[in-house]
Design brief:
It is a single chain. The chain is an alpha/beta fold and 545 residues long. The chain has three domains: 175 residues, Ferritin (Up-down Bundle), CATH 1.20.1260; 306 residues, Vaccinia Virus protein VP39 (Rossmann fold, 3-Layer(aba) Sandwich), CATH 3.40.50; 42 residues. Helices cover 43% and strands 14% of the residues. The chain is built from 19 helices and 15 strands. The strands form three sheets. Strands 2-1-5-4-3-8-9-11-10-12-15 form an eleven-stranded mixed beta sheet. Strands 6-7 form a two-stranded antiparallel sheet. A two-stranded antiparallel ribbon has the order 13-14. α11 packs parallel to α17. It is elongated and about 105 Å long. About 2% of the residues have low confidence.
Length: 545
């Protein structure tokens, strides 16, 4: 009940911040998402600080005003308290608190005070909370929020409206909530800002059903709580849906997250996601940059290898402007199956997923596991780079299986998708599942998408993990069988053709044959009669003419 209440209050806060933006002419503006996510993050960090301060200091917990209790502390006492809080809590000073801004909101140039506060928090916490670019620059926590209001005379009022909303209730009681709570809040927070906008590097939103299936197969229940000190990587991380699910299955304190994504917006959303999910220790590993051209994570001169990799890479994209730069000696091992050629008339349809897939295979530790969303055409292509990639996975015995998903599982793309599971430790059978007939079709705005029920999700997971065989749904086959079928990973090509047999006496057989003969004669008679009618009609037509 408490969880539902705070979920509703949190969503109401997000809605009210959006209403403020709309009132000041920023509704659906390109900068709206920065204001919403950054003010939400400021509120979250402020209340997390309060929660941790009360947990670690009895005097603060019992004070009428926790802010006043902290103001009374000298610098050494405050420093000691912050050390006790741990690395997941931002380091704040009394003049950073929301209550301080609230009490100073009627002073001149309040917008400047508001902005200066955010920038000071960002500077104070730069070492832990800043996202890096592949060139080494740091993307700090906060921007100057008021600068997005074009009319300077309205900036003070805009910032006052925000601070008055932030002070209305506290998040403190939500910090005991579990992963699903934060996943729901994060999805609600970014729902208007993380869609496929059709740009060159459009973000692909990964449905939670896909994310849950991937994480439950990579980290089965039998292994949860046993896996520790592992690295998890996504070379096209987006806002981090896949990584959050895997990290939750492993345990947030048992893994380190590594990411790269070319989109600055996605990297900022991912940072927010890490903060919400107690993965602040991984923020220094969040890199904004071009993974294919400038892969950042390395051990010495070699690409870093990871225990777990998840990815929903873009499928088709114009990368012709740097395609030839990838075709170098140093990339020969990474792109072992080749680099897609530039399409003369359809550059935007270049198969960039083939690069990501090869990069993932090259970045996997011996014995490591990966789950990658691919276009379903990948699993059956008879020639080219797709076939070479599949052949390597089969010949090197590093494949767990494939799940072919229903059409429109992604609301933003009509491409049929499959989930490819790589497992360098699997030397036994490979599981192939055709889940294309599962799910219920629903309208999602102008689009139609397919939604799996919880029972369907769990069935897919159980069948895959148990290597179960079900008629017209799943098969478990050897690497040799896959090689014999031209390396096809489509479950349908391995299903048995069923022929029904029926025992009958010679008399029953003769009766059946008479029945078939009679049916055939009847069909022939109908055909002859129809032919006669057509000829008569044509003769009559000619006579009329």
């Amino acid at each position: 009940m408490v969880e539902l209440e705070f979920q509703q209050k949190t969503k109401a806060l997000i809605d009210s911040l959006k209403n403020i933006c709309a009132s000041y002419g920023l509704g659906n503006d390109g900068n709206e998402f920065k204001i919403i996510t950054q003010t939400f993050l400021y509120k979250f960090l402020n209340d997390k600080f309060a929660y941790e301060a009360k947990k670690n200091d009895e005097n603060v917990a019992n004070a009428t005003s926790w802010e006043e209790a902290l103001v009374q502390m000298d610098e050494d006492e405050l420093e000691m308290l912050q050390l006790q809080m741990g690395g997941d809590t931002a380091r704040l000073k009394p003049h950073h608190f929301i209550s301080y801004l609230f009490s100073h909101q009627n002073e001149p140039d309040f917008a400047k005070l508001f902005d200066d506060t955010l920038i000071d928090i960002a500077t104070t916490n730069n070492e832990v909370f800043a996202v890096k670019t592949d060139g080494g620059a740091k993307v700090v926590l906060f921007d100057r929020i008021s600068q997005y209001i074009a009319d300077e005379s309205k900036r003070d009022a805009f910032c006052r409206a925000i601070i008055n909303k932030l002070v209305e209730f506290s998040f403190e009681r939500i910090f005991t909530q579990k992963f699903d709570f934060y996943a729901t809040i994060f999805e609600y927070l970014i729902k208007d800002y993380n869609s496929n906008s059709g740009g060159k590097y459009a973000e692909y939103y990964t449905p939670h059903a896909v994310a849950r299936i991937m994480s439950a197969i990579l980290v089965p229940r039998s292994q949860q709580g046993k896996v520790k000190n592992v690295s998890c990587y996504d070379p096209s991380a987006g806002s981090g849906t896949l990584l959050m699910n895997v990290a939750h299955a492993i345990g947030e304190n048992r893994c380190s997250i590594y990411t790269q994504d070319i989109s600055q917006k996605s990297s900022n959303l991912l940072r927010l996601n890490l903060i919400l999910n107690n993965l602040v220790h991984s923020i220094p590993n969040v890199i904004q940059g071009n993974t294919m051209l400038h892969p950042y994570h390395k051990d010495g001169s070699e690409l870093k290898q990871f225990d777990y990799i998840v990815s929903n890479p873009p499928f088709k994209m114009d990368f012709s402007d740097f395609r030839d730069d990838l075709d170098s000696k140093e990339n020969k091992d990474r792109f072992f199956a080749g680099i897609p050629k530039i399409k003369a008339k359809a550059k935007d349809k270049m198969e960039i997923y083939q690069l990501f897939l090869q990069h993932i295979i090259h970045s996997l530790k011996p014995g490591g596991k990966a789950a990658v969303v691919v276009p379903t055409g990948f699993i059956t292509a008879q020639t080219g780079i797709d076939k070479k990639i599949r052949q390597k996975l089969v010949d090197d015995k590093m494949l767990a299986g494939v799940i072919s998903m229903p059409s429109n599982i992604f609301a933003t793309t009509g491409t049929n998708v499959s989930i490819l599971f790589i497992d360098d430790s699997n030397k036994g059978e490979v599981v192939l599942i055709d889940a294309s007939n599962l799910g219920e079709k629903i309208k999602d705005g102008k689009n139609q998408r397919t939604v799996l029920s919880q029972d369907e999700e769990q069935w897919v997971i159980d069948v895959f993990n148990g290597k179960e065989v079900h008629d017209d749904f799943s098969v478990s086959v050897s690497y040799e069988e896959v090689a014999d079928r031209n390396y096809s990973l489509s479950a349908g090509q391995y299903f048995d053709v069923k022929i029904e047999y029926e025992d009958m006496t010679p008399e029953q057989f003769e009766e059946k044959m008479k029945e078939f003969t009679g049916n055939l004669e009847g069909l022939f008679n109908q055909s002859r009669n129809l032919e006669k009618e057509i000829k008569e009609q044509l003769a009559g037509l000619n006579y009329d003419l």
